Amino acid sequence: GVVAAVSAGVVTISYTVGGCSATHSITVNPAPSSISGPSTVVAGSTITLSDAVPGGTWLCSSTSIATISSAGVVTGVASGVVNIYYILGSCAAYKTVTVTPAPPGKISGKITTGGAKGTSGEMAVVGMNVELKDNTNITIAATSTNAEGDYSFEGLSDGGYIVYPGASGYTTTASAVINISSLSETASGINFRQDNSSMTISPVPTAVTAITYSSDISIFPNPASGYINIKWDGQATETANMIITDVVGREVLNTPVDINDASGQVQVSLSGLKNGLYIVTIKSANINISNRLMIQK
Q1: From the CB of residue 202, how many other CB atoms can be counted at a distance below 10 Å?
Q2: Percentage of the chain exceeding pLDDT 70
Q3: What is the DSSP string of 176-211?
Q4: How far apart are CA 65 and CA 297, in angstroms?
Q5: Using an 8 Å Cβ cutoff, are 99 and 41 in contact?
Q6: What pairs with residue 243 in β-bridges?
Q7: What percentage of the chain exceeds 90 in pLDDT?
């Protein structure tokens, strides 16, 4: 009485004794095949899995790590490992998928246009398409500005990128190549201005702010070579952040400064920074100073 399934379908099994018999109907379900598709996905990104046998249901072992749609699209949620199941009747195939962390790189900025007639200042440009290109000018992502005119691209790997906003009828000047690396994972303030008179969209250089000194905090030497010193006196004990940006607003260094004594001095390495003009800012709950910094090696 052992039934061996051969192929999908419905059969009737008969058991006969003399001139009498009993029957039983059995449904043979199709067996899922091996699941095909990638085995890794980055958190916040998607991959698509498939099975050659139609009619099944997808299931993920942990929705806190990844989710899967009815079409087999896996979305990474957080780092970890999950099993993705494809279920047909009482049978199932599974595939192990690893979710890796999203790269830390981020590029952001704002797009504005001139104030309306009779007003001053800039207004946000809402809904403008913004493309992110690699340094070979191939578009790899796109977004649009929000109600404040802001845009951002996150989860970027180390490499060179170009920001290219566009609107019908306007000529765009793209940003310079923005380098994302372990020394500078964030590039903020990559701003553009839409000029309605010249019908152009152009990068807005970040203004080099005036030198701001504090009688209680000094930054030296300037020009600097391989390092700078930060010296303070009469400060509240706290942790401040030292941020160095280039002249177009790209953050190239961000490091904490532990002001654990009322007076003291720390040395910060400038390794990896090229010659040129930068802005160094020290911020905390009680400190906000900035200074132009020249690096000459």
Answers
A1: 18
A2: 92
A3: PPEEEBTTB-EE----EEEETTTTEEEE-PPP-PPP
A4: 47
A5: yes
A6: 254, 281
A7: 46
